[in-house]
Amino acid sequence: MKKSIDLSTTIGFWIRRLSVSILLAGYFSSPSLAQVKTVEIIDNPLVNEDRVTVRIKVKDANDKPEVFLQDTNFQLTVDNKPLEFRSKDWKSPEDTIPPPAWIIVLLDYSGSMNQQDSRGTTRLDGAINAVREFTNALAERCPKNQVCPKPQVSIVPFGDPGSACEKGYPVREKNLDKFFPAGDYKLSNYLDLLASETPCASTNIYEPLSRAIRFLANDADPRFTIPEDPNQPQPRLSVILLSDGYHNKANEEQDFENLRALLKRNEQIIVHTLGYGLTPEQLGQKYGLGRAATRRDIGKGDKKVPEEEFVDQARLAEIAQITGGVSEFSADAQTVAEKLKLFLNALLGEYQITYSEPNAERGSKHDVKVTVQSVESEPKGYTITAFGRSLPLPTRLIMLLVIFIVLIGGGVVPFWLWAEHLKREAFEG
């Protein structure tokens, strides 16, 4: 009896534990229960006669792209009135034709990239392989039986000359403008060339990033500007910064403030950052600091962090946050590749809803809002084109009847009366 009671107690204990675990697993894995933080309508709605298309970006509580929602999670409000849309008119990010995209990948080529990561792969090899996987995934981001614009990618190594390296990797316009379509063999060959080199430079993060931002912000370049046709999607402009170090210049604070101002002036350009190495917490544990490592801990000797191992996680996260980008950190090549694929969703992870404007009068103005799990977007306005949609069939029949009556009353009847009058005159004469 005692054994039976003990067994029942044990079973009851584990049933409760397993039930809680199952509920928690279901909560975090269920797309419909994902915690949404922000909802944004990207660009202005596209209008084709009375059909309106909106593109929507959704972020979760961690400011990461939420790409696993269903159509039932979305509600439309047009002119402050709920509007139903058909399930077939909703598209997930995988089914949406991606807009034109111009992506610059800034790749740290400092000497520390020759070191091995936590899995024994050199950081350079890990970074190159991860970028290769990322560009291949970009090339495949197109729905079946559709023609999509290929995202354009420029891989730009950066690094200042140092005591052991006179050459360095300066960032110039010609380097930034070396775009290749994602998946193109020329891009693969260029990655092979970069992999064959030996990084040798010191880390200067802010200047290369500033040059990339200014390059993409060039209003005179039609590739990066808003198209004149309002029904064409705006190009997506992004910079991915992959670094295993920190900005090691004496005036770091001022350099960062200058960069912050530049990023805020060019809010159409999104910067995603990826730190490659040990986190400050891991470095603090490795070197016995008893806390997370900071810049003040860089140096030589006991309880000092070697310069080539410190990655400024806080600054990388701050840079991404200013632009609405994603910041990630990784200690090994495999995770770097996974994080870059997360950036893919951040770059092109947009939902799409198309609906019929219920009051599509010519030249009429309207606004639309999207709500996802009680989180509402800012409204976006649009105007029905001058041509508008064709009139409803009943209206067209009424107009035809009116025209017919006018023709009979104003043309046929008077002519018939005049003809009868002439006949009577001829008969009487």
TrEMBL record:
Keywords: Membrane, Transmembrane, Transmembrane helix. The chain crosses the membrane at residues 397-419. Residues 102-277 form the VWFA domain. It comes from the Bacteria. InterPro entries: VWF_A (IPR002035), vWFA_dom_sf (IPR036465). The keyword Transmembrane applies. The keyword RNA-binding does not apply. This is Type A von Willebrand factor.
